[in-house]
Amino acid sequence: MATFLYKLGRLAFRRRHFVALIWVALLTLAGVGAASAPSAGSTSFSIPGTEAQKAFDLLEQRFPGASADGGTGRIVFRAPEGEKMTDAANKATVAKTVKELGDGSEVVSVTDPFTTNAVSKDGTVAYTSVKYEAPGMELKDSTREALEKAGDEARATGLTVDIGGDALQAAAEPGAAGEIIGIALAAVVLVITLGSLVAAGLPLLTAIIGVGIGVSTITALANALDLGDTTSTLALMIGLAVGIDYALFIVSRYRGELAEGRDREEAAGRATGTAGSAVVFAGLTVVIALAGLSVVGVPMLTKMGLAAAGTVVVAVLIALTMVPALLGYAGRKVRPAGEKRKANKTKAPEGQAKPGLGVRWASFVIRRPAAVLLLGVLGLGAIAVPATQLELGLPDDGSQPTSTTQRRAYDLLSEGFGPGFNGPLMIVVDAKNSDDPKAAATTVADGIKDLKDVVTVTPATFNKAGDTAMITVIPDSKPSSTQTEDLVHAIRDQSTDVKADTDAKVLVTGTTAMNIDFSQKLTDALVPYLALVVGLAFLLLIVVFRSILVPLKAALGFLLSVLAALGAVVAVFQWGWLSGLIGVEETGPIMSMMPIFMVGVVFGLAMDYEVFLVTRMREAYVHGESPSQAIVTGFRHSSRVVVAAAIIMMAVFGGFISSSESMIKMIGFGLAIAVFFDAFVVRMAIVPAVLALLGKKAWWLPKWLDRALPNVDVEGEGLRTLDDDKDDKKDEDRELVRV
């Protein structure tokens, strides 16, 4: 591996014009494709195999033309103090609003609150529902504008009017200002780490090109592959972070090779052969973690993971080819590592030069490994405690900031009709095999009325064939409550008896039931996903480190950091601790996909630091140093760069905290805090402490396994052999000259 990448790096350095031209051409091609491709909304949301999805599919089949997946809008009216919605003037305003909404080109139906009993018991609140042909995210701008205009005109008459439903949802921007701040902080860290503007600019430039290719390709294929806006946001987030880091590691190693007196082409080759090998395997762990999201069985997560994994592959390829090419262009503007420190040492009295901070820290950990290990584990364990109170759910209008019209509409409906009105359950009765479909539907409705936490059960509505019925159930509790979840399970438990008595199937669907099934599916998939991803990465790290205990320690350290990160997410987004600092206006359940998503992404990123830090230790150990000396050597050469890489990732992820989209904000915070825990506590403290306690046992590998494993030569032993061959050739040449 190291020898092949060494040759690739030298080739890219020599043929830099050709390499740069290829990547610019790919960027241009992807950009043209993105610009000419039709725009796409959010990816369609489906959960194959769940009862809610089966019911939804049955509705589309048995109720054709009903636009089961169409967007919905609700205009909620509240009468002024002392008035009723049934007053003549207020009824006239509502009637005018209903008429205007019904003229829309994408509107399927509009309800009149005075004929559908959509007026609260005290007469102060009423609502009209609008059903659209297209899903909410795919509605035309003119349709959304018409909905907002109708609300504004009704509001002008003195009524309190707010709008809810998914018709107002639009693609959320991740927060451009935050991204710019993140990139600016990354640039500052790169300048401090690499010592010059040119050297700092290389990782930024290559990362931007890689992300440009990845995101543009996703945009170009978005309509054809049903990729949503969240997919490109994730690819941007991950691609930018790893792109900067991978290039940083190679540029840093290049400067180190220059400091050892090698010429620039040779230094580029060796940097690509050594640091590049670590980049390949670090990238593979990220790709495994992201692509592994496909085992969950949710198409949206699969597409997000594969798209982000593709962007990581591009980042790896750019680091291995374009970075050496740009180093060729930079020439002497990228200086050898430590030039300034060497100049300062020559001015200082001999023997007074202090070792670097990384060396001093590693020496401290080696002296007190047990104390450092205990403190790190207990600290992260304490932060992980809130994760035991994790509550999962999907965001709805109730989780929106109180300043939004969606949240105000949600609160008005809760006030007028009860909290459960915002999360109605749709009961589908498949009576195709029943002798008396109407009697079967009546049996189902009567059984539901007897359950706890039920406020209203509407009469059954049958399709034209008369073999399928819809029943709407209004719970007494809000959609995200455990009481509503218990009600869904209770209705499903009754379905067995109903089928036995009437031969009719009972299915529960609706947004609330979808959310419950989604959360359950993700929970069920977490253990198999962990086993797959951690297992594959464990095998990969055994090949890289040729050790059993080092990969095991890496996996256990990851679990500790991700649990601590989940604990921090729960404390901030569910409990509200320090939520004001990052703009969390409304606390509530944690997004259902957050745990499994964090496991996938954080595992890949955590293994990055493990590979970059420990491969340098492995390299020193293989070349004859003692285990303790190897730890110090690894920190001497890698700690500064790993710290810089972690700060850069935190800056990039932290930039997404400014997003107005709650999901993006939560992901940005979760990833940033997870990188902090993993890089600064696990990799920089717990890892050296464990290695110091294990000593030579850390690098133990059974002989039979050592013979069976392929030799990937991440530590660059093949390059040392190459040096010996060159030295022998020089000796032969000198001998010939003397002869």
Helix segment tally: 23
Major sheet: 5 strands, antiparallel
Radius of gyration: 31 Å
Spatial gap, N to C terminus: 39 Å
Low-confidence stretches: 171-175
Structural class, from secondary structure content? alpha+beta
Proportion of strand residues: 5-15%
Q: How many strand elements?
A: 11
Proportion in helices: 55-70%
**Overall residue-averaged pLDDT value:** 84
Which overall shape is indicated by the principal axes computed on the Cα atoms? elongated
Briefly summarize what is shown.
The chain is α+β, with helices and mostly antiparallel strands and 739 residues long. The chain contains 23 helices and eleven strands.
Task: Give a description of the structure.
The chain is an alpha+beta fold. Helix content is 65%, strand content 7%. The chain is built from 23 helices and eleven strands. It has helices at 2-14, 16-36, 51-62, 88-102, 141-155, 176-194, 197-225, 229-259, 264-291, 299-330, 339-347, 357-367, 369-384, 405-417, 437-449, 482-502, 511-545, 549-574, 594-622, 627-655, 662-694, 703-708, 717-738; strands at 72-78, 107-110, 125-132, 160-164, 392-393, 425-430, 454-457, 461-462, 468-475, 505-509, 590-591. Strands 6, 7, 8, 9 and 10 form a five-stranded antiparallel beta sheet that branches. Helix 8 (229-259) packs parallel to helix 10 and helix 9 packs antiparallel against helix 19. The model is unreliable at 171-175 (pLDDT under 50).
